[in-house]
Design a protein that fits this description.
Helices cover 68% and strands 0% of the residues. By secondary structure, the protein is an all-alpha fold. The protein is globular.
């Protein structure tokens, strides 16, 4: 966990928000530091990093962590996690996050 936090901090200024969120999402799931709740913690932490890096809470409902729990995002999210475990590539996971974020921002109730 220390390595993950240090990497996020070292790369904070030169990384894109979605890139950092994808790394946190993958890394917490990969480290698997808890007996229960790794997915929830990973999704919440990733979303927090995303919002913090963007400098605001992102409007829209449902929010990204909720979207990632349900298809069509869940199956893509799990496949992207497996891909990252195999080769370390985070691009597929970043695409899932970006797509989910667009869905969240398309909420017609956003003012």
């Amino acid at each position: 966990m220390d390595d993950m936090v240090n990497r996020v901090n070292r790369n904070w200024t030169e990384s894109e928000s979605i890139e950092l969120a994808a790394y946190v999402l993958w890394r917490i799931n990969h480290i698997h530091p808890f007996i229960n709740g790794n997915g929830r913690t990973a999704r919440a932490s990733s979303y927090f990093v995303l919002c913090l890096h963007m400098g605001k809470w992102i409007p829209g409902d449902p929010i990204l962590p909720e979207l990632l729990r349900e298809d069509p995002y869940r199956s893509r999210y799990l496949e992207a996690l497996k891909k990252a475990d195999q080769d370390g590539g985070l691009a597929p996971l970043a695409y899932v996050i970006a797509d989910g974020l667009l869905h969240q921002l398309s909420d017609p109730n956003i003012q």
